[in-house]
Write a structure and sequence with these properties.
Distance between the termini: 13 Å
Oligomer: single chain
Number of helices: 9
Shape: globular
CATH class of the largest domain: Alpha Beta
Radius of gyration: 27 Å
Order of helices and strands: HEHHHEEEEEHHEEEEHHEEEEEEEEEEH
Helix content: 10-25%
Strand content: 25-35%
CATH architecture of the largest domain: Roll
Bound molecules: zinc ion
Number of domains: 3
């Protein structure tokens, strides 16, 4: 695969919606899936009555043990406005069975709120219900089965396993392209940029060809099946030759949960380095080319971020809106006051966030407006200024006020955990380099 091909990254969330189906019901009779059916039967032959035998070799499924039952199996995806009543009527299932199921302790609550996209699995014979399963959380399934004395409900635990894994990438064209080549989800890369290094590194202007990242992060599995990525545990980012490290730390009492340098300083600052959603910028980012409208700081006392019209602009810090309107060459412009004499300005906007008005409080990261080219602008870009006591400072280099370090009471615990994570990161580096040297890596 050629790496100099420019790939436009299409960001899409991991959750797919199922509400826009032309067919009202998604009906999946068991017979259509002989392989799955066979696998379920295989799982059951080991222990047909015990729901706790989930650690068996049976594949992941939302409908454990239903294949042993006579009758027809239905997988129902809940649509908008559905109720259990309607679902039972639709499939001509016995309404008195529904009433009996809802009368079971535990079942009523677990079935009370069905939402579009939820899946119910039912087994019935001529409308007589034998079983009903519904996943009620990432780790629990409600299982209702008919017994001699009526229905019985139980909660089956399906634990989610977190496995730490490594990813290593070098940036040729964009962070997202490098992430994809390294097999990392876009959500995980957004964590890296937004939750870890977004205060230290300007992911719009500072990313260079040859920048590298190395992550230790968690992947979620259930019954051996990959569900998605979870948290980054430790990260290294080499930007323009400068090495940045971060580790995740959560204290046992829940008081602290965030990312820190290995010596215990928070990665967060009171101001973001680049106050805009870099996803859309990075999709047409070319590190070998200078931004054509990147003017000198001295000329107009701010930084210009070339970005497509409509790109979200974020409040770079907590503050209060002091101005939102039109002002001369700035065009549509927002000014925020942050306390301590610091103010920020966002110019040439195409529009403001809905309802934004002077006096309003905003939190760091809140969307306040959208990139445009109003006022004296040659093309769509954000003009950003950072002032201290009215004096312009270069937002790209100004020392940003620090957030709190790890409190002394937690330092010993933090240090031991951080050391373990850094060791894990270093250990992975050996394998990453070995991988890249056998031709699988990117350089
Ligand atoms: Zn400008």
């Amino acid at each position: 695969m050629s790496h100099d091909t420019r790939i436009r990254f299409d960001y899409s969330p991991a959750i797919t919606t199922v509400t826009a189906r032309p067919v009202r019901w998604r009906l999946l009779p068991l017979m259509m899936f002989p392989l799955l059916g066979g696998a379920l039967v295989y799982g059951l032959t080991q222990n047909p009555l015990m729901h706790t035998a989930r650690e068996s070799a049976a594949p992941a499924t939302d409908a454990p043990d239903l294949a042993s039952l006579p009758g027809e199996k239905l997988d129902v995806i809940v649509q908008r406005h559905d109720t259990l009543d309607r679902i039972f009527r639709q499939f001509k299932l016995d309404q008195t069975d529904l009433a009996a199921i809802l009368g079971l302790p535990g079942a009523r609550q677990a079935l009370s709120q069905i939402r579009p996209g939820d899946k119910l699995t039912l087994v019935h014979e001529d409308g007589t219900v034998h079983a009903l399963n519904r996943r009620i959380s990432e780790t629990e399934i409600l299982s209702v089965t008919r017994a001699d004395s009526g229905f019985a409900a139980e909660i089956i635990t399906t634990p989610v396993e977190f496995r730490a894994t490594h990813a290593y990438g070098t940036i040729d064209s964009s962070l997202f392209v490098a992430a994809r080549a390294a097999g990392v989800n876009p959500e995980t890369i957004l964590q890296l940029a937004n939750d870890i290094f977004g205060w230290e590194i300007d992911f719009v202007l500072d990313i260079r060809t040859g920048d590298r990242f190395h992550l230790v992060y968690e992947q979620k599995f259930r019954d051996g099946q990959y569900l998605g990525d979870a948290r980054i545990l430790a990260a290294e980012f080499v930007n323009a030759g400068e090495r940045h490290h971060a580790v995740h730390y959560a204290s046992a009492d829940g008081q602290i949960d965030g990312y820190f340098t290995p010596d215990g300083r928070s990665m967060r600052r009171q101001f973001l380095r680049a106050p805009l959603d870099f996803r859309r910028v990075s999709s047409n980012f070319n590190p070998n080319r200078r931004h054509p409208i990147l003017n000198s700081i001295r000329a107009h006392q701010g930084v210009d971020y070339a970005a497509p019209t409509g790109t979200s602009i974020k409040a770079s810090g907590d503050g209060r809106v002091s101005f939102a309107g039109v002002k001369g060459g700035y065009g549509k412009v927002i000014t925020l006051e942050h306390g301590g004499g610091i103010s920020t300005l966002y110019g040439h906007l195409s529009g403001f966030a809905r309802g934004l008005r002077p006096g309003q409080r905003v939190k760091q990261g809140d969307t306040i407006g959208y990139v445009g080219s109003t006022g004296a602008a040659t093309g769509p870009h954000l003009h950003y200024e950072y002032r201290v006591n009215g004096i312009h400072r270069n937002p790209r280099t100004v020392r940003l006020p620090d957030a709190a370090p790890i409190p002394a009471d937690y330092l010993v615990d933090f240090q031991s955990k951080a050391a373990a994570l850094i060791a894990q990161l270093e250990q992975g580096r050996g394998t990453a380099v070995a991988t890249s040297e056998d031709g699988q890596g990117r350089r």
